[in-house]
Amino acid sequence: MFKKFTSEEVSGQNQVKASVQRRIRQSIADEYPGLELVMDDLLPKKSPLIVAKCQNHLNLVVVNNVPLFFNIRDGPYMPTLRLLHQYPTIMKKLQVDRGAIKYVLAGANIMCPGLTSPGGILDEEVGAETPVAIMAEGKEHALAIGFTKMSAKDIKAINKGIGVDNMHYLNDGLWKMQRLD
Amino acid sequence: MAEKPQPVRVLYCGVCGLPAEYCEFGPDFEKCKPWLIQNAPQLYPDLIQESNSNAADRVSDQLQSSSITDVTGPSGSSVPKQEPVKRLPGGKIKKKDKQEVIIEKVTRNKRKSITTIKGLELFGVKLSEASKKLGKKFATGASVVKGPTEKDQIDVQGDIAYDIVEFITDTWHDVPESAIYFIEDGKKVPAV
Ligand SMILES: [Zn+2]
Fold first, then answer.
1. Mainly localized where (chain A) (predicted)?
2. Which of A30, B8, B17, B69 is most buried (CB neighbours < 10 A)?
3. What CA–CA distance (Å, rounded) separates A142 from A131?
4. What's the CA-to-centroid distance between B80 and ligand 1, angstroms?
5. CB contact under 8 A, B108 and A141
6. Which of A4, A85, A86 is nearest residue B148 as measured by Cβ atoms?
7. Span B88-108, mean pLDDT?
8. What is the tens place of the pLDDT at every residue in A152-161?
9. Which positions ≥6 away from A70 have C-beta within 8 Å?
10. Could you read off the pLDDT of A3-21 as tens digits, one per residue?
11. What is the ipTM of this complex?
12. Chain B: residue nearest A140 by CA?
């Protein structure tokens, strides 16, 4: 999604109304309870919260010019990788084997066998349509943010085709956009 | 009461910007290596050995040909360095980049378009100079940018795809027309 993403794809930036700001904060807090204690640092009530509207119904939540979360239409908010790296425990994790790293970093969606092979790890708690951190065999930090197409149990049982959509990965356009001015 | 979690500080590579552990999968691992040896030796223990043995090679080279200086210098070398063969998972050998120039028109906003030119560097063209020349010739903005994958490319504002082939072959005689391609509707078509 962010393969060729640049600031030129941002069609409008708006400081959102207080009510909308509250709603966004609330849904992020609900989705990521692990952020509860740092919410005031991340999305300070005093700083204006900017929503940047982009192509393909994509929204970026921007604070102090730093993109922190994104979502599609009214879908769940997902952290940027830079934010996830700081708070790695806020998301459920799935791990791909080493062989898949290259493909994930080229933007490919995550195929079931990359998760079920010996180098992969499936957290069976993960349901379908859930934002997840994509980790990699032998690596400490996440390399992508995914959105599951099927539950972890189904990924294991079906073991074929795309298990997780690759939403955002290291070195894609959003990764390179450290600031949005 | 739970304590406020402290943000983790990830070691990002000073060269490619990825977490240092991912440099090996990054755009140019070779360029990251000196930085990694300095800043993240624990992540790539093999690199230390590699650099030690390179250093040893250099010393023995100098001993053998003391009259020639700086042949194997790390940067100023005029001898093209042999690149190690990259291996894909499964042991397939990655083919070296084909010498091609790829031109693509990208529509950014509704009316604005940008023409991107990739691959000139494969013909020994300096991209910064090329972008200046292109900007001048077409009286528009041109800049060298990091491409979406790994390579640098030149972005020229406006749709100049039509005139550009002739300009490239006229300006850089090393680039044959037969090596120039357009991307049109997602397909690669030769310019000739
Ligand atoms: Zn690097």
1. cytoplasm
2. B17
3. 13
4. 22
5. no
6. A4
7. 65
8. 999 999 999 9
9. A58, A59, A60, A61, A77, A78, A80, A167, A168, A174
10. 878 887 888 888 888 888 8
11. 0.92
12. B21
